[in-house]
Amino acid sequence: MVENGITIRQATVADIPDLVRLRRMMFESMGFDDPAKLDAGDAAAADYFSRAISSGEFLGWLAVTPAGEVVSTSGLVIDQHPPGPGNLSGKTGYIMNVVTHPAYRRRGLARRLVQAALAWLGERGIQRAELHATDMGRSLYEELGFAAHTGMRLEMRK
Amino acid sequence: MTAHTPLGGITIREATLDDAEIIYQQRLAMFDDVWGPLDPEGVAAMEATFIPWVRRGLADGSYRGWLACDGDGCAVAGGGLIVHEWMASPGNPDSRRAYIANIYTRPDCRSRGIARRIMNAILDWCRSEGLKGVALHASPYGRPLYESLGFEPTNEMRLNFE
């Protein structure tokens, strides 16, 4: 799908270097600045993507310029939660890896990429989507209908 | 299988395949407590999907359950854990993500610290597996317990499709 010269398409294993590059950009914009940890994260992500894109476990979407540069991404995995009355299949789409190169922000690319993931879920009858929002992303997700939820997390101490 | 020391006549044990029906009944009661009376059609549909799902999970280890049993072996509380294969990140080199579900205590057994013992059994298991963190969705009733165990709210958002 082309709009304003930018094409949205699904990611393949050939796109792993771009997915890893933008994922690192996302962590850097969240304030991660230890190069050793970022490098280790890159290697682990590349390994995960090569396994999970091939198996269909991870789905990615890319925004590509006419010159072929990948400038924004989104990602989706399907989590299997226990079936419940509000979600009989228990399947929940978890959206992550939403990041746009700083020079390409404010153009609606992340919106188009998240909408592509939501459309994929809709076509398969998956009733629920979740994500963790940065402050930068929150207003977009609210516009798309996401609302703050009851998630809590415990970080284990050694 | 680990059985925790009885306290007040209550023993915590891990669930087996034979407990699928009990886990289902506890889950149903949990939703009933949080959301009010459930639509019978929804309950029937959930029974059809949940029981096979949890049996599969108990069999292959993707779902683990813990039950608190009284002196007669009757389950009065329970909880479960799902471990997803996941992606490492700079803050967490582990490729697994753990999610706690189905924390429930029968109304006549509440305020005795039983859910806390269930949670501690689950957290002990997570620690013994070297998991770096664990997530859950809290009902208003459960939140104070989770907070006292160190859980903190996250930036999670959810969308339910029409």
Can you describe what's shown?
- The complex is a heterodimer of chains A (158) and B (162).
- By secondary structure, chain A is an alpha+beta fold.
- Helix content of chain A is 37%, strand content 30%.
- Chain A has four helices and eight strands; from the N terminus they run E-E-H-H-E-E-E-H-E-H-E-E.
- Chain A has helices spanning 16-29, 35-55, 109-123, 135-143; strands spanning 2-3, 6-10, 58-64, 70-80, 91-100, 128-132, 147-148, 151-155.
- Chain A has a six-stranded mixed beta sheet, with helices on both faces.
- The longest helix of chain A has 21 residues, at 35-55.
- Chain B has 162 residues and is α+β, with helices and mostly antiparallel strands.
- Chain B has one domain (13-148): Aminopeptidase (3-Layer(aba) Sandwich), CATH 3.40.630.30.
- Helix content of chain B is 36%, strand content 27%.
- At the A-B interface, helix 2, helix 3, strand 6, helix 4 and strand 7 of A face helix 1, helix 2, strand 3, strand 4 and helix 3 of B.
What is the topological layout?
The complex is a heterodimer of chains A (158) and B (162).
Chain A: E1 2-3, E2 6-10, H1 16-29, H2 35-55, E3 58-64, E4 70-80, E5 91-100, H3 109-123, E6 128-132, H4 135-143, E7 147-148, E8 151-155
Parallel strand pairs in A: 5-6
Antiparallel strand pairs in A: 1-2, 2-3, 3-4, 4-5
Chain B: E1 11-14, H1 20-35, H2 40-60, E2 63-69, E3 75-85, E4 96-105, H3 114-128, E5 133-137, H4 143-148, E6 152-153, E7 156-160
Parallel strand pairs in B: 4-5
Antiparallel strand pairs in B: 1-2, 2-3, 3-4
Helix pairs in contact in B: 1-2
